[in-house]
């Protein structure tokens, strides 16, 4: 199980494939390296792919009482330190949801370390309804009830069609949700609520691929439209019928967009 200390945190990571270019994928807020299985399979024949768990996620170091609150700057510095440790001077940087937000922060803080950017189902600021949703996630996580947290969050992540067709699968994931470290989830939710890069998006010079599920009800399409409009060299791709977890619902469409963009 490969881990290393980066910026003071023990981070779990996996490197797949080979090639002259590296793609780094940042997780969604309650996801892990395993969430990217379909993308790793499709992309690793063409690129070296680095997936990792941010602090608080998966198999990486968790938040403990007395630790400082998580911040976007801390996450970005963690990633830069991880790249240093793995001798990756620059890479394509991408992510979905929380990971897409980190991609923006990282590009603004470390522009010279970024080649192309992929920002999927993400936001550049938090409007009142999304603020209320994320705040409710943090409050439910504070109860310590893993099943309640899962059942209160799962329907935000998928389209109605996917939820209906894969309901048994989604129900089967309740036990897996018990692996979440809820105090760390609270930190991740609170950090998310501070997201605010919209005014600085015109500073991003890298070619940028913005992806969003047409039926994303958690972070609706207008958030991605704002990002694509504000980043000077960005293209918007709307995946028809997909919900928030567009890379899970329609991996073939999602992966083709990435391949066309990254290998161009």
Structural write-up:
The chain has 264 residues and is of the alpha/beta class. The chain has a single domain (3-124, 197-262), classed as Rossmann fold (3-Layer(aba) Sandwich). It has helices at residues 37-43, 72-85, 98-109, 128-141, 146-153, 160-165, 167-172, 182-192, 221-230, 246-249, 251-262, and strands spanning 3-6, 9-16, 22-26, 48-52, 91-96, 114-120, 208-213, 234-239. A hairpin with a 2-residue loop joins strand 1 and strand 2 (9-16).
Q: What labels describe this entry?
A:
single chain, alpha/beta, Rossmann fold, 11 helices, 18% strand
What is the element layout, followed by pairings?
Blueprint: E1 3-6, E2 9-16, E3 22-26, H1 37-43, E4 48-52, H2 72-85, E5 91-96, H3 98-109, E6 114-120, H4 128-141, H5 146-153, H6 160-165, H7 167-172, H8 182-192, E7 208-213, H9 221-230, E8 234-239, H10 246-249, H11 251-262
Parallel strand pairs: 3-4, 3-5, 5-6, 6-7, 7-8
Antiparallel strand pairs: 1-2, 2-4
Helix content: 25-40%
Approximately how much beta-strand content do the residues carry? 15-25%
Give helix and strand order, one letter per element, not per position: EEEHEHEHEHHHHHEHEHH
CATH architecture: 3-Layer(aba) Sandwich
Distance between the termini: 33 Å
């Amino acid at each position: 199980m490969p881990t290393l200390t980066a910026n003071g945190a023990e981070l779990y990571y996996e490197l797949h494939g080979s090639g002259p270019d590296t793609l780094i994928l940042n997780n969604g807020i309650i996801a892990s390296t395993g969430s990217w299985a379909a993308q790793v399979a499709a992309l690793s024949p063409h690129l070296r792919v680095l997936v990792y768990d941010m602090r608080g996620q998966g198999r990486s170091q968790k938040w403990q009482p007395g630790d400082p609150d998580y911040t976007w700057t801390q996450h970005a510095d963690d990633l830069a330190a991880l790249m240093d440790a793995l001798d990756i001077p620059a890479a394509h940087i991408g992510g979905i949801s929380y990971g897409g937000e980190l991609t923006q922060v990282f590009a603004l803080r470390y522009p010279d370390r970024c080649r192309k950017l992929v920002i999927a189902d993400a936001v550049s600021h938090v409007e009142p309804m999304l603020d209320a949703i994320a705040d409710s996630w943090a409050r439910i996580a504070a109860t310590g009830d893993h099943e309640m947290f899962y059942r209160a969050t799962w329907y935000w992540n998928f389209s109605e069609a996917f939820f209906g067709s894969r309901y048994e699968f989604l129900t089967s994931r309740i036990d897996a949700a018990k692996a979440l470290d809820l105090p760390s989830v609270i930190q991740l939710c609170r950090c998310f609520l501070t997201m605010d890069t919209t005014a600085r998006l015109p500073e991003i010079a890298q070619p940028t691929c913005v992806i969003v599920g047409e039926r994303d009800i958690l972070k609706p399409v207008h958030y991605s439209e704002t990002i694509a409009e504000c980043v000077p060299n960005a293209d918007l791709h709307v995946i028809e019928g997909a919900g928030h977890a567009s890379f899970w619902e329609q991996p073939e469409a999602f992966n083709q967009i990435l391949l066309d963009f990254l290998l161009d």
